[in-house]
Specification:
This protein is α+β, with helices and mostly antiparallel strands. Helix content is about 20%, strand content about 30%. The chain contains three helices and five strands; from the N terminus they run αββααβββ. Strand 3 and strand 4 form a beta hairpin. The protein is globular.
C-alpha cells in the first residue's frame, strides 16, 4: 500500500527486518480466501531472530481498544517496562509507541498493513483476521 492519502502508508521499501516480518505475514495468507492471515495461524517463533522486536496486540471494538498480548524484550526494554497485558490507552506515550493507537486504528479501519517511522525507530502493524473481524495485530519495531 503506497497511497499517500492513506495515513501510515507503507513506504516503497521497508527496512530489512520489517520487510522480513511483512513477507512472513503475507506467507500466512490462506490462498485467495482473504487479504490477510488468520490470527490463529500466527506463530512468532517462525521469526526466531526477530522475536525480541515483535508483538501481538488484541484489537477490540466498541469501544475501540488495543491490548498488548505479547511484547518482545527489545520493545519492552526500549519502552522501559513490561507492556504485556496492558491496554495501549493505559500506558504513557513515548518511543517506540508514539502514535501507536492512531496507527493501530488505521490498520483496523483500512484492513491493511501500516507503517510509522520517527526518532530512530520504525514500526510495522499488520492486521490479523479472526471471529469475523480483525481481532489481532502483529507488530514489529526496529531501531534505525
Amino acid at each position: 500500500m503506497s497511497d499517500p492519502a492513506f495515513p501510515f502508508a507503507l513506504p516503497s521499501a521497508l527496512e530489512g527486518d520489517l520487510a522480513q516480518v511483512h513477507d512472513h505475514w503475507r506467507g500466512l495468507i490462506r490462498g485467495k480466501a482473504s487479504d490477510m492471515p488468520y490470527w490463529d495461524d500466527v506463530d512468532l517463533s517462525g521469526l526466531p531472530a526477530l522475536t525480541g522486536r515483535l508483538m501481538l496486540i488484541a484489537a477490540m471494538a466498541k469501544p475501540e481498544r488495543f491490548r498488548f498480548e505479547i511484547v518482545g524484550k527489545d520493545i519492552a526494554g526500549q519502552y522501559g517496562h513490561e507492556l504485556a497485558g496492558r491496554f495501549a490507552d493505559e500506558v504513557d506515550i513515548r518511543p517506540p509507541l508514539n502514535f501507536f493507537r492512531s496507527q493501530a486504528s488505521v490498520t483496523v479501519e483500512a484492513a491493511a498493513p501500516s507503517y510509522f517511522r520517527a526518532g530512530g525507530y520504525a514500526r510495522l502493524l499488520l492486521p490479523l483476521w479472526g471471529e469475523g473481524r480483525i481481532g489481532m495485530l502483529m507488530g514489529a519495531v526496529v531501531r534505525l
